[in-house]
Design goal:
mainly beta; 5-stranded antiparallel β-sheet; 3-stranded antiparallel β-sheet; 10 strands; 36% strand; globular; binds zinc ion
Length: 160
């Protein structure tokens, strides 16, 4: 359900779209091309890792695995941006950035934009699902988060 007043946007590309030159996050982008959200997981100690690292921060094992994760989570925090810090998103103001906690990845949190902008009614604790789309003007797909249901925890409504 999309609350009235919100806008589902095309996924505008930014200069930030795509892997870094060092290739560390390339499996993430390849995962999006394959229709998957992939995060790192240490094969030695099972720690979920995000953002990408060359080495596990807990046990110092190199080259953590990349594992597909169900793109479902809950909003841990969010903010609405009214200023065009990113020029490519200037036509989509205000946009919403969410910190999404992934229960299928040990509670690891990832940062991303909501697919909808404006008055989405987003709240901490809301359930969101990842949507992968290929912008026509970008070489790599983008992941955006879409609200699927409100938080079931009492008292969360007041944090909007
Ligand atoms: Zn480890």
């Amino acid at each position: 359900m999309t609350p009235s007043g919100s806008v589902t946007r095309e996924f505008p590309a930014t200069e930030l779209v795509g892997p870094y030159a060092d290739g560390l996050d390339l499996p993430y982008w390849e995962g999006l091309r394959a229709g998957e959200l992939r995060l790192q997981r240490c094969a030695a100690c099972d720690l979920w890792i995000w953002g990408p690292r060359w080495m596990c921060g807990r046990c110092s094992t190199f080259d953590p695995d990349w594992v597909a994760v169900e793109p479902h989570g809950r909003v841990f925090s969010w903010s609405r941006t009214w200023h065009p810090f990113v020029p490519e998103l200037a036509g989509d103001l205000p946009y919403i950035t969410a910190l999404v906690e992934l229960p299928h990845a040990g509670g690891r949190r990832v940062l991303g934009l909501l697919a909808e902008s404006g008055d989405t009614g987003i709240a901490i604790g809301d359930h969101v699902t990842g949507v992968i789309a290929q912008p026509s003007d970008a070489p790599w797909p983008l992941l955006r988060w879409r609200r699927v249901s409100a938080s079931s925890e009492p008292g969360k409504e007041a944090q909007r």
